[in-house]
Amino acid sequence: MDVSSSEIAHDHSPFLKIYKDGRIERFIGTEVVSASLDPQTGVESKDVVISPETGVAVRIYIPKATIQTQKRLPVLVYFHGGGFCIETAFSPQYHRYLNSVVSEASVVAVSVDYRRAPEHPLPVAYDDSWAVLKWVESHADEKGPDEWLKSHADFERVFLAGDSAGANIAHHMGLRVGAEGLHAGVKLEGIVLVHPYFWGKEPVGSETAEAEKRAKIDDLWRFVYPATSGSDDPYINPASDPKLGSLGTGKVLICVAEKDMLKDRGWYYREILEKSGWGGVVKVLESAGEDHVFHLLNPACENAKALLQRIVSLINQGEL
């Protein structure tokens, strides 16, 4: 018997284990559901491969009633969470959540299925996500290959959102928009960061009392990004990023949860963003009594409904 087949090289439970023979065992985030017409919300979805070479794909959502009209809707580009190593855009919880957001906010949503670590270590997820954003942008002026985006997207009202690792990605896409700009007629109106996966070498707030958990977060970051400079890498610690003040939007909503280990990082992000010379408006919504990504695990609870309505208000009324 080959001993390496059972010997563990990396244990990142409850997410995944890597065995010495290279085998990867993911414990959660492996289930997928098909694109469909959701009878509860009236939202239709479809999958599109953006790059046959890399396999990067998106799931696009639209209220079915919009398809037969000339109506144009805001665009939401969404990045799923999962520590950069689990979950996909096709996971049941993300499919359910995007159906809800699209129904409530009346938007066209593009959910990004970027490649994951460890098979594709960072910064691959960032590069894939930017490729998708540029693909979305290519539909401005009624161009591009996708009819839903070409016919129904209002490119002057584009929003980025994500949770956990996906919120980290959304932040970095905003920075890249600030650095490189967007096509004429395409405007990034706002960014929503839900329980963002930010970190740093020096603890902030309540992190000082969580040495063991801090070590796990440090280890996970080095696992998904082996070439990183560490927990003060600008990819994980916005406070160390000289480009922070060039974020390419004027509105940012940060959502944190009271019991979440990452909560204080969300509050700290607001503080450093306001001091960066950015000049936009940033607000924080804290959900009392809740933990990390509670809104995905228990979408019917009152705090999840309140979080969703806050996002809807930003998209529809521009209110933070």
Walk me through what this model shows.
With 320 residues, the protein is α/β, with parallel strands linked by helices. 31% of the residues lie in helices and 23% in strands. It has nine helices and twelve strands. It has helices at residues 64-67, 92-105, 124-137, 147-152, 165-180, 211-224, 263-274, 294-297, 302-317; strands spanning 8-12, 16-19, 24-26, 37-38, 43-49, 57-63, 73-79, 108-113, 153-163, 188-194, 251-257, 281-287. The protein has a nine-stranded mixed beta sheet, with helices on both faces. It is globular. The protein starts with 7 loop residues before the first strand and ends with a helix. The model has no long low-confidence stretch (mean pLDDT 95).
Topology:
Layout: E1 8-12, E2 16-19, E3 24-26, E4 37-38, E5 43-49, E6 57-63, H1 64-67, E7 73-79, H2 92-105, E8 108-113, H3 124-137, H4 147-152, E9 153-163, H5 165-180, E10 188-194, H6 211-224, E11 251-257, H7 263-274, E12 281-287, H8 294-297, H9 302-317
Parallel strand pairs: 7-8, 7-9, 9-10, 10-11, 11-12
Antiparallel strand pairs: 1-2, 2-3, 4-5, 5-6, 6-8
